[in-house]
């Protein structure tokens, strides 16, 4: 296997992983809101706005073997990561609730799930954006070579 083929396979694998993470995140958020009837808060909507397009972008990049995915996916990931970090800081009380954007409706500190005493919807979102962020960094370094 030559170096170009090996690099192409690595790019495909990384893009596939990022697509899987974004799809699981999107379907998970839809499951919680549409099946479990958990209404999303304002911060959840901001994160959805960033996550949902990523599943389409990664799918297109996957089929076209696009090495420029970093340029147009990273702004959405950084914005989503910012909202996810802020949401977790609100949830854990590090940022006071008076700074929460949800003055009406569902609170951003709502605790719908709490698996094993620490896995919340807010943490799942943060992990998803962090995984995609790290994957994009790998893609950036692999395509620079």
Element-level helix/strand string: HHHH
The CATH architecture would be: Up-down Bundle
Share in β-strands: under 5%
Any idea what the shape is?
elongated
Integer tally of domains: 1
- What is the CATH topology assignment? Bromodomain-like
How many helices does DSSP assign? 4
Spans where pLDDT lies below 50 across 5 or more residues: none
Protein name: Disulfide bond formation protein B
GO molecular function, one term: protein-disulfide reductase activity
Main location: membrane
Membrane topology: Multi-pass membrane protein
Detailed description of the structure:
Helices cover 71% and strands 0% of the residues. Helix 1 runs antiparallel to helix 2, helix 1 runs antiparallel to helix 4 and helix 2 packs antiparallel against helix 3. The protein has 4 helices and no strands. The model has no long low-confidence stretch (mean pLDDT 90). The chain has a single domain, classed as Bromodomain-like (Up-down Bundle). The longest helix has 33 residues. The chain is elongated, with a radius of gyration of 17 Å. The protein is an all-alpha fold. It is found in: Membrane. GO terms for molecular function: protein-disulfide reductase activity. Belongs to the DsbB family. BdbC subfamily.
């Amino acid at each position: 296997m030559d170096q170009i083929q090996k690099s192409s396979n690595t790019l495909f694998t990384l893009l596939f992983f990022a697509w899987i993470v974004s799809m699981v995140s999107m379907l998970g958020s839809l499951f919680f809101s549409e099946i479990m009837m958990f209404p999303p808060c304002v911060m959840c909507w901001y994160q959805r706005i960033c996550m949902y397009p990523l599943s389409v972008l990664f799918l297109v990049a996957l089929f076209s073997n696009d090495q420029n995915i970093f340029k147009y996916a990273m702004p959405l990931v950084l914005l989503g990561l910012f909202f996810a970090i802020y949401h977790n800081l609100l949830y854990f009380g590090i940022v006071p609730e008076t700074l929460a954007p949800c003055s009406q409706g569902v609170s951003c500190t709502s605790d719908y799930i709490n698996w094993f005493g620490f896995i919340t919807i807010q943490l799942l979102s943060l992990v998803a954006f962090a995984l995609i962020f790290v994957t994009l960094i790998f893609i950036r370094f692999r395509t620079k070579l």
